[in-house]
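RETRY 2/3 - previous attempt timed out on the joint model. Re-submitting the same 394-residue input unchanged.
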Amino acid sequence: MQLKHFSDISAAATRVVDAAERLIQVHGYNGFSYDDISREIGIKKPSIHHHFATKAELVRIVIQRYTDTFRGALNAIEISDSGAIARLFGYVDLFSQTYEKDQRLCVCGMLGAEVKSLSEAAAQEVQSFFQMNLDWLTKIIRNGSQSGELRFTSSSPEAHAYALLSTLEGAMIVGRGLAINNAPALAGRTYISNLPA
Amino acid sequence: MQLKHFSDISAAATRVVDAAERLIQVHGYNGFSYDDISREIGIKKPSIHHHFATKAELVRIVIQRYTDTFRGALNAIEISDSGAIARLFGYVDLFSQTYEKDQRLCVCGMLGAEVKSLSEAAAQEVQSFFQMNLDWLTKIIRNGSQSGELRFTSSSPEAHAYALLSTLEGAMIVGRGLAINNAPALAGRTYISNLPA
DNA sequence: GTCTATACTGAGATAGAC
DNA sequence: GTCTATCTCAGTATAGAC
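RETRY 2/3 succeeded.
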């Protein structure tokens, strides 16, 4: 079947996606129901099914929109900040801002853990999110290395991109388990502190 | 009520815990049921309830045993490996070994993401696991710094411990989303590559 | 686009026999 | 310690009226 794109959805459907996104970030895919959304935004379960026939389809749209918003934020960092360190700090801030809202997780961090419960299409969207992040980080780190702003010896820009993304996703999870307030900033800035020339 | 300790359980109960542990690592707390365990080990649901009255209690025991096993592994590393780098590589291997089994996650990485769905007692056990890891890593990293084997400037041993644990927990999740084989080893070794003097 | 009503399934859990 | 039978509730989803 032909899958919808998130930008096509109505105002009412947008409210459903907003609620689903928040519920995923707090409770995970297997931890929320249409009933939870119903209570949160004040429309009944069948109305939600009218907008999103299945939970799998709803989640796919949530991830798609989340990834698109994140892409915009990455572009904004490149415009507002110059230099690798400043841009990496801006990147860390994206995760901090999410976590500061009631210790919400990255949508794809949560769904990455639950990926074996997702539809094939949703799992694909999670993969796209991670790949987009790795591509961007690799570019920033490679440029910083070539300009001399960053210095690292044995590992590649790709490896540092993967390690930094992992650090931030993990910091949110460990931070929540330990009830740490500024978890992503703490771990992310520590990682970056290893890289300056 | 008086809570049980994992070391008190019978052989049949141990098989239940084994299955629950694996199911948590693959599907998460909200992603498995007593029925799944039933199918896996061939006893009926009420028999499982006989051993563990509630799912919350079962999960608490799973975490408790997992933490105890991990504690033993940390001690074994200190005996078999000398030097901070070797011990940190041994630590990374613990996560690699878990991930190599069908891309299983760390029990507490998964449950940390789902911590808002857990009982208070289970959440406490997750916290204890993370704290044990941070204490051990901090000790190893501080010793390595004092001996001159490790070198880092702006961050503390505590901060590096937190960042390295986060990196490994995150690497498993991102790695699974991207279907990367040696995810924890890749990210963990990259992190450690930043630290040698 | 939203509703009431309802189907169907699976979940966690209990009663009581063996 | 394990079983059959059953309870109750929540979950996803559909039918059909407004």
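Chain B has one domain: 7-193. Closing ticket.
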